[in-house]
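Cross-posted from the bioinformatics board.
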Amino acid sequence: MTRTTCAYCGVGCGLTVSGSTLAGDPKHPANFGRLCAKGASLLSTLGHDERLVEPFIGPETASWDEALKLVARGLQNAIAHHGPESVAMYVSGQLLTEDYYVANKLMKGFIGSANIDTNSRLCMASSVAGHIRAFGEDIVPGTYEDLDECDLAVVAGSNLAWCHPVLHQRLLAAREKRGTKIVVIDPRRTATSDAADLHLQLRAGTDVLLFNALLAQLDARGAIGQGWIAQYVSGFDDALATAQASTANIGEVASALDIDRAALEQFFDWFTRTERVVTLYSQGINQSDHGTDKVNSIINCHLATARIGQPGMGPFSVTGQPNAMGGREVGGLANQLAAHMDFSNPENVDRVRRFWRAPNIATRPGLKAVEMFRAVAEGRIRAIWIAGTNPAASMPNASLVRGALERCPFVVVSDCWPTDTTAHADVVLPAAGWGEKTGTVTNSERRISRQRNFCAAPGNAKPDWWMFAEVGRRMGWQDAFLFTSPAGIFREHAALSAFENRGARIFDIGALADLDDAGYDTLQPTQWPFPKADQMQSRLFADGHFPTPDGRARMIATPARLPKREPDVLRLNTGRLRDQWHTMTRTGRVPQLMSHTPEPFLDIHPADAAAIGLADGGLAQIESQHGRSILRVRTDARQRRAEIFAPMHWTNTHSSSGPIGGLVTMRTDPISGQPDLKATEASVVPIHAQWHGILLHCASVTPCWGDGVYWSRVPLTKGTIARLAGWNSLKDVIHSEDRLRGFMSITPETELVAYIDPARSVFRYAGVENGVFVAALFLAPANLELPDVDAIASLIGKSVDARQRLSLLAGIAGHGGSGKTICACFSVGERAVKNAIGSGRVRTIADIAAEFRAGTNCGVCIPELKDLLHAGKCQSPKTGTLN
Ligand SMILES: Nc1nc2c(c(=O)[nH]1)N[C@H]1C(S)=C(S)[C@@H](COP(=O)(O)OP(=O)(O)OC[C@H]3O[C@@H](n4cnc5c(=O)[nH]c(N)nc54)[C@H](O)[C@@H]3O)O[C@H]1N2
Ligand SMILES: Nc1nc2c(c(=O)[nH]1)N[C@H]1C(S)=C(S)[C@@H](COP(=O)(O)OP(=O)(O)OC[C@H]3O[C@@H](n4cnc5c(=O)[nH]c(N)nc54)[C@H](O)[C@@H]3O)O[C@H]1N2
Ligand code: SF4
Ligand SMILES: [Mo]
């Protein structure tokens, strides 16, 4: 059995793997055995034949030696002709700490430029900046136990139930145990708000006003920790005066937020009266053009009430990626240097220079992600190495990024899979991935856990640290990159954290600097700071001492800014789905994770949809200053008026026009450089498709449906389902039998069975090879006239007799299918649950659990199961904001 850590979110759940069994590690303090569906399905992401297994130079495979030499030469060339600032690296919170450490050392220490930034810029930069402003260092003060021990959990700009499911479960367990109240602050109704005691569905972008009003109310209601502030906090008067400036009238605040005044007062009451408050926050706070102010407006309320550093209280930035924290520890952001030292102090630079023996070390911050890709587009950066991230899909204005990579003279990409980014690379390096590589990650509560390998990397794939070290040596820095194992790298990283530290920096893991290889192999989950063997600290700031020059925490004045209201402009919010991970390079290959939401979509309030002429289930084109997408419309009263939502996940691997990054604004927060990924000005128009279609195939087919065709596809355990639509007449799309066969990905030898009803423009084709049903294409003028795809999918790849062929074409074949996966942990389809409800066999969540096990693992599907029960009872849905 191997103990390891999940590859996905920043909860950092421990797992055990033995043979083909994966389970939650009951001993890991992040999850105590719990897992969500993404973690539980990790083994199905291994062993795919589409993995990158050899280095590529252009379209040709190459040996590692050739590829690494070329990378070293490419970087050296740029440095020789255009200086070190013409080189950049763009890395990822999904690399292991050891990978990250070597990349940062190579770039900042030896290439001598700080142009290394990470996708954490899109994710955590505002929290990092907010922490540094408030505490003097990038510190998350709390620990997960605080979630078990709080009496009020404020969940701001976070869809915890979907994005950090195991933490959400800890909150729900706390509510069971001690009656913890949960308040959700989100402009959308989400699975998280459905499970809350109070939902403040504020206008997007108004959080600072809300927390300023809270601060002013805490003062007015006598909840300020005067003694504590006098001793440990600076900036209170300014912060309060700024907060009071626009919040004197609660009625006006409520109307600016566009929420119920009673709900707002309820929130103020609970916060005022409750000692143990944790405020959890993530991208609805960070990803904003004033994200750092949002973060500090939250921290202000905790500092003002001394609700920090004690059990069950504190501001809690939940990190997204599995190693967002590890990357911050090594200094992976362009404005950090290493080990929580930055460039603001020449002593830091000198210290790291001596430690690394790096005379050429960078002495000033480098370019942050958005500026970095702009510099690539403008030719100021001539060579870039991208590792463990897919910026051609995930960056704002992704088409600019693609153009920039096309134009850049030298692009290196290391990834496990072909992606939209590897498509633009001069050199592609095959990376070993989760399960195959070994090292450490740090989760949201500063806990370092081992990721351990338990299988071999496919082909010639190699760990990232090895690639960076090999290139460092080939560039002439033999001694600095002599690493032979992650353990050695980790020791050096730990030693740097302790080097001349003497308590100046809280990030100190000196106790691990002498860990031998065996100790590294058996390292137990460990929280930092950990300077000496007996000095591990779980919760910080209990003593009121902060790592600022005067030892005091700082409250920051955060003037409220309200978003502009412009008629006819919709505000596009983007984010995550329950079962998908980012650009779907892994989750998009797992059928049970794809089936919950098979298509990219746009959520829009029914009244806005009606005004624009959009129909539920139809297609819409959404457009911004940067680009456009075509998405399936879901009219949904859970959206606010004039605010629309689209998932960030789809790329051109899974859909023709679902990628949303091409639209998203490049506006950034001036302090953190984090892009405003939740607020793009956009407009929407209906798309009138002339026909709709479904293609089923027994293999993984590559789309070749040409222009004018909308498609999105989902993998089956064996095969593909694609949903299609087109705006040119069908005759133009399928003008010959050859074209039809091409469209269906079948050969001239495949037997083609057809059913055509010209009067209704209904066309149905099935491809049969040696009696086996290999492909089907159904076309009709309207989506509703297409057959039930689940039912037919159950026959794909199977032998079909003459009767079945007929019923196939009649669209009534198959065994009914299971409907969309509602519980991904136990692969329970919606249809089975609906049938059981309809028959009266199940009436409660407990009944469903007993019959199907659905909802008994991660619990993420419980709100949807409740909706089904509710619909079954035919009651009108609950309304209002107080649940
Ligand atoms: N299933 C799944 N889980 C994941 C990931 C994934 O891809 N899939 N990714 C991981 C990563 S890297 C990250 S960073 C986290 C992100 O985790 P979250 O931050 O929870 O996820 P998002 O969906 O990006 O955004 C959260 C919420 O912010 C809300 N929001 C938008 N604008 C505002 C606003 O102005 N104010 C407020 N208060 N809220 C607003 C959105 O409506 C959305 O519901 O998830 C991690 N976990
Ligand atoms: N519109 C919009 N855009 C967003 C966001 C949003 O909310 N809205 N959220 C932003 C946030 S918070 C984040 S974190 C980013 C995420 O955006 P990305 O980082 O671009 O997304 P991923 O799909 O996780 O990309 C990770 C890549 O690394 C590869 N990989 C996995 N393991 C390894 C490894 O060990 N080594 C190497 N070399 N490669 C590996 C995967 O195959 C994948 O291609 O997206 C950001 N972009
Ligand atoms: S909550 Fe889910 S995705 Fe996050 S670490 Fe745990 S198992 Fe992995
Ligand atoms: Mo993230």
